[in-house]
Amino acid sequence: MCQLLALNSNVPTTINFAFGGFAARGGDTDEHRDGFGIGFHAGRAAWRVFKDETPAATSRLAAWLRRHPLRATTTLAHIRKATHGAVQRSNCHPFSRLWRGRSWLFCHNGQLEGFRPELAPGWQAAGHTDSEAAFCWLLQTLDARLPAGTAPDVPTLRPLLQELADTLSRHGPFNFLLSDGHALYAHCSTRLHWLARGEQAHPYGPVQLIDTGERADLSTAHAADERSVLVATTPLTHEEPWQALRPGELQVFVGGRPVPRLAS
């Protein structure tokens, strides 16, 4: 299956170091050779998405992005192992849509069997993947369930997304990342991990990538008051306190921190 990566922080920051290890999994240290994509949120109504159907480990675009790192408060990345849809740019993640005045980015890891939703005009997918169909179905369903004209906040959206994720998971693994430029929603169906940085208990400091062996001292590139969360299918670094999400768990991150669930 594919692999996912995201960063959420309280100030615009770069995912460049983590992306270097992640990109290696796209055809070098792992088998995800069928393209990659990365999306940067520059506010709730603006985003930039870069996609390439060539392996991330050898892509000229991926190399260019590493030489010219962009800063954003939320970044989503994906390396693809094709199961539905041809190896082409339109089938690479993340997928993007404007909805309720916000830009939404979505990445999926898994395979949804027998999922053929009825999508109304305006909600049709541009490519041919089960992942993009799921994204369109999610937004279409949320649009029908929520009062017209409102932009949903985390307390409103979280239980609805949990319900819809449970529904889609009946068709197969549905690990996904979703962002509106403010909140990052991460759903684990089979495997997903997260790591908080910038706290007193785990400040920025020396780290080493698992896939490439590259080392860096992140304290020289990040401000003392910067907080961030990385989410990845599997841990990217040695000797950092990555935490596994439970199967079926939907976690939300805002400003580089997990958002506690409201008491029911």
From TrEMBL:
<keyword id="KW-0315">Glutamine amidotransferase</keyword>
<feature type="domain" description="Glutamine amidotransferase type-2">
    <location>
        <begin position="2"/>
        <end position="264"/>
    </location>
</feature>
<dbReference type="InterPro" id="IPR026869">
    <property type="entry name" value="EgtC-like"/>
</dbReference>
<dbReference type="InterPro" id="IPR017932">
    <property type="entry name" value="GATase_2_dom"/>
</dbReference>
<dbReference type="Pfam" id="PF13230">
    <property type="entry name" value="GATase_4"/>
</dbReference>
<dbReference type="InterPro" id="IPR029055">
    <property type="entry name" value="Ntn_hydrolases_N"/>
</dbReference>
<protein>
    <submittedName>
        <fullName>Class II glutamine amidotransferase</fullName>
    </submittedName>
</protein>
